[in-house]
Amino acid sequence: MAELLKIEELTICPANSTSRMLVSNVSFSIEPGKTTCVVGESGSGKSLTALSVMGLLSKQLVRTNGRVLFQGKDLADLSAEEMRKVRGRQIGMIFQEPMTSLNPVLTIGFQIGEPLTVHLGLKGDALKAKVAALLEQVGIPAHRANSYPDELSGGQRQRVMIAMSIACEPLMLIADEPTTALDVTVQAQILSLLDNLKTSMNMGMLLITHDFGVVADVADDVVVMFRGEVVEAGPVSQVLSKPKHPYTKALLDCVPDAEGKKPLKPIDYAWLNNEQVPA
Amino acid sequence: MSEFILKARDLNKFYTQRSGRFGFGTTQVKALDNVSLELRHASTLAVVGESGSGKSTLARCLLQLQPLDGGSVFFQGRDLADLPASELRRQRRHLQMIFQDPFASLNPRMKVGDIVEEGLLIHGLGNKDERFEKALKMLKRVGLAESDMNKYPHEFSGGQRQRIGIARALVLEPIVVVCDEPVSALDVSIQAQILLLLKELQREMSLSYVFISHDLRVVRHIADEIAVMHQGKIVETGSIQAVYESPKQQYTQNLLKAIPGQKRHVA
């Protein structure tokens, strides 16, 4: 199977101390039409991995090793201008905070239309029609195109973000904790919307989350990250039911289950440090 | 003393919103609409609901941190609204709160030791040495060290700050503790630690918790009884087992159905 995105031995360090690795030797790949979930605690490097794919790392961080191949091409070889053509056009991104990632002084119709104008040169009525279609696709009435972000609820804003990111029908979508700020019922709606879009547009999806419940619902493959490293990766059924790595087991043990039968067990980090970690 | 330590009767709270053109009109939003609940001694009552359902308003109204527009709260059989201000302040010692955001709820200019001691100071409990000893004991109990007392909140991680918040509330040996989303800002691993800590402390100090949360998985682990809120009303109450296994209201059923992780089983 041809990979859409392949991350090879990605290593990210702060620019001023290249011995401290924030992300080290991370490798995994994403296939079209499949969802890969990256799970881990805060500080495990999952967001940094996603940002480096998009070339959005802050200037204080540098990639010291590894490659990010998109359709076989190394994204690092692209010029800034070429990278801008990939961003938003071929790889879409949804951020965690639907409250802060929209521009408050522009209508949502304008913001959804912007990538269409920039990348595809759509104008006038064609643009309006496409924006209306996108809004309908994510479940917002088309007449809301003239609304401002503050007139929408959190779930609707996240839908707007999704509409923006899929506007140019990208080949891949990166979603960084897209439902963390939302209520459970809204979360369920957004996740199934993403799942449907992924299937209908045959997109590859990289979903970053810390919630194993979300993983169980939408993932095809899972990558578990811990302190900047991938500790376990594999198909979702295998990782969730037969975790190999002690950290994955520990992380699964501290997730409260919906039935309330399993006792909670916090992670014993001291024990993890002593554990001989299988590579 | 009755078995109910805290009772709320027909609580009402309205917020007035400007509306219409240029905000000349006003509309009233019912944040609490005839809410009644009862908290048993040494048990946990969970209040669940989506954002905007009024659960945080309820938390603040239960502790009289916000004036009510109707109804009354009885603590140990006494109506809190009838108490003179000085007596209410004395009672506050027994009614403590643990807040959601461990980053916003600690004064960044105070040392951790002082934050935990402040309640004792305000309520005039013990002399300087006794207060120090108590604060130290409490901080150690929640998993911090003596050396941490001279640090400032920004030197701690989110989980540690939540521990400080817990120590601050429990150093006064309260009877009722209202926890407003105490673990929703934390990682799952830290969340499990804090939940277990809260449970242990409940046993040791026979605390009664009102546990406000939107996470039905967490609630199932910590609570004995549950009240489901929707648009300012309590739509369903009952024991955890009854509500989770046979929810009566459509709204509760929808909430339960939306819990992620049900399509495939998480190990």
Question: How would you summarize this macromolecular structure in one to three sentences?
Answer:
The complex is a heterodimer of chains A (279) and B (267). Helix content of chain A is 36%, strand content 23%. Chain A contains 10 helices and 10 strands.
End-to-end distance of chain B: 44 Å
Mean pLDDT of chain B: 90
Fraction in helix of chain A: 25-40%
Class from helix and strand fractions of chain A:
alpha/beta
Q: Can you describe this structure?
A:
- The complex is a heterodimer of chains A (279) and B (267).
- By secondary structure, chain A is α/β, with parallel strands linked by helices.
- Chain A starts with a strand and ends in a 5-residue tail after the last helix.
- Chain A is globular.
- In chain A, a hairpin with an 8-residue loop joins β1 and β2 (23-30).
- Chain A has helices spanning 46-53, 80-86, 108-120, 124-137, 154-166, 184-201, 212-218, 236-241, 246-253, 269-274; strands spanning 5-14, 23-30, 35-39, 61-70, 73-74, 91-94, 172-176, 204-209, 221-226, 229-235.
- Chain B is built from 9 helices and 10 strands.
- Classes of the chains: A alpha/beta (279), B alpha/beta (267).
- The A-B interface holds A 41-42, 154, 183-188, 191, 210-217, 236-237, 240-243, 250-260, 264-267 and B 50-51, 158, 187-193, 195-196, 214-218, 220-221, 240, 244, 254-267.
